[in-house]
Amino acid sequence: MTLSAAPASPAKASQAVLLVRILVGWVFLSEGIQKFLFPGALGVGRFSQIGLLFLLIVGARSLEARFMERRTGAHA
User: Fold this and answer.
1) In angstroms, rounded to a whole number, what is the distance separating the alpha carbons of residues 44 and 23?
2) Per-residue pLDDT at 22
3) Euclidean distance between CA atoms 16 and 10, whole angstroms
4) Which of 20, 47, 63, 66 could form an S-S bond across to 55 if both were Cys, CB 3.0 to 4.6 Å?
5) Can you give the pTM of this predicted structure?
6) What is the CA radius of gyration of the chain?
7) Is 8 left (phi over 0), alpha (psi -120 to 50) or beta?
8) What is the rounded CA–CA span in Å between residue 47 and residue 59?
9) C-alpha distances in Å from residue 16, one per residue of 7, 49, 56, 66
10) What is the mean pLDDT of each run of 10 residues along the chain (76 residues)?
């Protein structure tokens, strides 16, 4: 078996990049949906289970601030 040092064609390279982007996007989307559907097990509830209640409070305040920034148009 011989290995070729020739680079792949640009069309094949761009198809590979597209495939990787789609797969990574799918992972992020599915993880986000799971965290939304099961917040106690996969979302912010995990922090309280290990004793980090402070992070729950900070996370809620951060979400509140983001909502208000978007609502008033003062986003960075």
Assistant:
1) 25
2) 94
3) 10
4) 47
5) 0.49
6) 21
7) beta
8) 10
9) 13, 40, 39, 35
10) 64 87 94 81 71 63 69 65
